[in-house]
Amino acid sequence: GVDFGYGGKVTIGKQWGVHTDVTMYTTDQFNVFGSEASATYTGDTDGGLLGTGRADQDVSYHNNLFKILDLGAQVQFRTTENDDVVDGAGLSAQLTILPGTRIGATYTKTYFDDLTKASVRGLAGDAEVAAVGARLDWKVLEAGVVYASQRNGDLAHVPVRSLPAGDLAEQTANVVRRF
Q1: Residues near 111 by Cβ (< 8 Å), separated by ≥ 6?
Q2: How far is CA 176 from CA 100, 147, 160, 161, 172, in A?
Q3: pLDDT-based confidence at residue 165 (cuts at 50, 70, 90)
Q4: Is the model's pTM score more than 0.85?
């Protein structure tokens, strides 16, 4: 990454997505809640595919303006196997309203290729994940609240290894026999 001082920071690679700028108000604590509830780590993954957790192949920009407004933007370039240059994008904004008190919002959209949309039953479009939150971080009190909403954000790529037809039939018979 590169730090441009007042011009912000640009980072490239697998890294925390802008979605976590807001969702980690509560989920980074792990005292009570896990981060699946805020759509950060979706489908039992690290959130890399959707760019909500540890975003895959990501270019991010973060800047703090006047020490009260934090802005974030990201673009994902996951694959060259489709016609899209950009495979996903996200934005975040956080406002410090009092010392130790901030509010924020984030939105991430992930574009799925046509083959994925056609082959997954019930997938009616691209993934969209949004969250709003507030955080108090005072000396005697630490609290946070996050509301997250997602559409098609529970999809995860699961590799399936290819087996010869006979092996697959034998494995299926073994599974059926166990139950």
Answers
A1: 84, 86, 87, 88, 126
A2: 57, 42, 19, 20, 6
A3: low
A4: no
Coil vs helix vs strand at 164? coil
Strand partners, 62: 9, 72
What is residue 82's predicted lDDT score, i.e. its pLDDT?
64
DSSP string, 62-93: EEEETTTEEEEEEEE---SSSS-S--EEEEEE
DSSP code for 117: H
CB atoms within 10 A of CB 111: 17
User: 3-state DSSP call for residue 134?
Assistant: strand
Q: How many CB atoms lie under 10 A from the CB of residue 101? A: 13
What stretches of 86-152 show up as alpha helix (H) in DSSP? 114-119
Number of alpha helices (DSSP H) and beta strands (DSSP E) in the chain = 3, 8
Name the pLDDT band for 40 (thresholds 50, 70, 90).
Answer: confident
Could you tell me the strand order of the sheet in which 101-110 lies?
Answer: 2-3, 9-16, 54-65, 69-76, 88-98, 101-110, 127-137, 142-151
The encoded tokens of residue 70 equal 């934090």
Task: Yes or no: say if 144 and 135 are a contact pair by the CB < 8 Å rule.
Answer: yes
